[in-house]
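Subject: Interface between my chains keeps coming out wrong

I've been trying for a while to get a sensible model of this assembly. When I model each chain on its own everything looks fine, but I need the whole thing in one frame so I can look at the contacts. Pasting all components below, labels as-is. Any help appreciated, I'm running out of ideas.
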Amino acid sequence: MEFDDNYPQYELMSHHTEEEGKKKRRRLWNIFWIMLAITLIELAIGIMAGQMGLLNEIRMSTVTLKLIFVGFTIVKAGYIVMGFMHLGDENRLMKWLILGPYTTFVVYLIYMTSVGEGVYSSRHKMLIDPIIEMQADELRAGGGHGGHEGEEHHEEKGEQKKEEHH
Amino acid sequence: MSSSHEVEVIDPKTVDWGGNSSPLRISYGKMFMWFFLISDALTFSSLLVAYGFMRHKYSEIWPIPGDVYHHFPFLEGMHLPLMYVGLMTFILIMSSVTMVLAVEAGHRNDKRKVMIWMFWTIIGGAAFVGSQAWEWMNFIVGTEHGATREVIENGQWVTKTIHGANMHYNEYGLPVFANFFFFITGFHGFHVFSGVVINCITYSMAWRGVFERRGHYEWIEKVGLYWHFVDLVWVFVFTFFYLL
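Reply #2:
Try treating it as a single job with all components included. I did that and got this:
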């Protein structure tokens, strides 16, 4: 099936020569190394924060850490969209057409779920399945599972269970 | 009409919206692939925002992903938090690079290089789907000792030891954590699977010389857009699900 979309102002394929290709490939590999480095940094910080039990608290250092993660992720997303998906090479109208509506909706969505009548307001409690609330109460009563105590907790239980079996 | 002097002549090269021109200077196929990706991106965004909502509502009892995902193939019994997820991320970024190199080779009408890079992209995608299946297996099977929970069995609440997680209960914490895990990574995994199938079709098309007959490799660009989008989503899933 061939479509007749030979409009005058674009080519179906942007051709380039071998020499231009070399330059482009070098740029693509540079993007790859940057993204790999960011991922490794994220992973290292993430593992450390998880082991230190930083993730489940609401305090300044945790919030800062999470904002850093979000920042890293947006940088990586920028490299993928602008570099790999070639949106950086499209014309300005096209860039706005893709990024504008998406950003508007997502910012609105985040605003509606987090600011004002947010996560901790009593109104939202009614919107959440009562079964989840019940399960959460059970977990809270059982001492919870989060943080670094998880490991030792598991091991103790495991030993008990083995004894029961034998 | 031809006698009138008032007829305005529109030169499509200077007037964008005068008709017979393409204001976005992009082909029909690529533009609609972008539109599809926006709608898909909104779906993934709502899933991740919903996850974030629950994750912060039940912040103090939410499982630490590092304690849940610490398995590594061939290294059983070792506690390696998030290492395998890191490897999966590496595999997917790598396959994204091979895809964009295939696109670049297409720009030079280099059939051999297109096929080589498409081959590696397919391998990377398949490796990722396999890894995801392995993660699911570990998450569903769970630990040997399990956890004691109240669960519904035959319409009755009973207290029993459970292992692993499914849509009804979760050894590691709230069942809704497991639900989000299955939904988000499952939806993403299905996208990767579809991508691998589309990549295989593309490989066979390149092999049969379809693009040479057309004179251009634009198809590769469209497939590439989809494949990079899959990688893009994983970057966000990796951060919001595994790190935050």
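Reply #3:
Confirming on my end. Residues 24-89 of chain A form one domain.
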